[in-house]
Amino acid sequence: MYQTLKFAVVFTLSFLIISCSKDDDSLSGTYELSTTTATCGNNSETLNFDEDGCDTSGGIEYCESGILNFSSDGTFTSTIRLTAPALGDLFSINGSGTYVANGNIVTLCFPGDCTDFRMNGNNLVASVPTNGCTLTLSYQRI
Length: 142
Prior knowledge:
This protein is mostly beta strands. It has one domain. Helix content is 10%, strand content 61%. It is built from one helix and eleven strands, in the order H-E-E-E-E-E-E-E-E-E-E-E. It has an eight-stranded antiparallel beta barrel. A hairpin with a 2-residue loop joins strand 7 and strand 8 (105-110). The longest helix has 14 residues, at 2-15. The chain starts with a helix and ends with a strand.
């Protein structure tokens, strides 16, 4: 499951390397990665990051750090990082881009690619089919 989760996370994050434009400022604020779920067929594995930013799955501890910060001018910055101390860095998204909010759909764009997220209250959620599985990333406003 670790290999599937790692591949799915890396694949999804590669979608976040993009460029778009701005819309409204209702999204302005700071968000952090709160859960990551990899679903493959009937099997599902979820990491729920607690107050210290870590969770354990399959005997391996995973830790997240960093934030997504949205500005009212339609830009955002990211310092998101996921590690497994026993395995090292799994992925990081460091950089800036633009976003467009249209209803409850928010499109995040880094130079080269864009990813749609669904706004649900104070959460941004993206589900991406990856290699026969679905990776769902949820970010919560802090």
